[in-house]
Amino acid sequence: MLNQYVPFPRYENAVFIGDTAVSILSAMRIYAKALIGGELPNMERYYPQEKLLECTACFMNDLRVLTCAISHGDIDYILLEDNGKEELNPAHRAEELKALGYEVRVLRVSDPINSLKEAGDLFNEPQRAQRVIRDYEKSLESLAERIQSTVPKKALLILTIRNPITFDLYRFALSNQSEMAKTLLTDLNISPVAPDGQSFIEGLVEINDPTFIEKLDFDFIALLGDVEGGLLFLQQENRSITKQIFSLPYYANPLEVKKPEVTYLWLEALDHLHQK
């Protein structure tokens, strides 16, 4: 779907901070030595070639993990995302990092098109950015008719997050209050169903026992995040699950530049569902 004509990867001796900035630069095949993010579950699986240092919230509260990591490596600069938000905006730490002697660059992010243009200017790669923009627009256009033809479906979305250090598993059902429900799923005519339960993060209901599944009405199950962990959860249910189960990508606003690719995979599952 994306990056069919983008040149060879470009590797920067830098640390990139901010989920949207990382996603935009990844679409352009521009990579860093290390990353700081936090809005994407199991972020290390999205970007296995780069070292994940910590989450954005941790960085905003304390610079020591970043500065300690840099002290052990030869880093040329730190790139900060400027997302225009009041909170969790990495660019707010720019002056403090400069005062510590680090070179800081700032990438302003908004919608994918403008963010790609900003990145093209910042890295002196306008042609690389335009290639991604062209492919992004053409891919969305090619999917428009299929998106419009979708019919309403209900889905149980199980998001499993695996701690990369301890390998502990954390499982959630996505509700209609989740960011994914308000964006991608709305476009695809999919309504998420979820049990009642604790929700420490808006739209994510913690689940530990699969017996609730038989009480819900839905058309299919989508496993997001760590699929193996999701399958292990479903196998705890003694009764056979008759609904179809798909492994599908998670989606959040920082991944908007990858929306054509994610949408295609979801449409593929819906097509298969309709054939049954």
Strand fraction = 15-25%
CATH architecture of the largest domain: 3-Layer(aba) Sandwich
What is the distance, rounded to the nearest whole angstrom, between the alpha carbons of the first and last residues?
Answer: 26 Å
**Helical content (DSSP H or I, runs of 4+):** 25-40%
Summarize the main sheet.
6 strands, mixed
Q: Which overall shape is indicated by the principal axes computed on the Cα atoms?
A: globular
CATH C-level class of the largest domain: Alpha Beta
Count of individual beta strands: 13
Report the oligomer: single chain
Low-confidence stretches: none
CATH homologous superfamily annotation of the largest domain: Nitrogenase molybdenum iron protein domain
What is the count of distinct domains? 2
The radius of gyration computed from the alpha-carbon positions, rounded to a whole number of angstroms, is 20 Å
Quick synopsis:
By secondary structure, the protein is an alpha/beta fold.
Essential attributes:
276 residues, Rossmann fold, 2 domains, six-stranded mixed beta sheet, 11 helices, 22% strand, globular
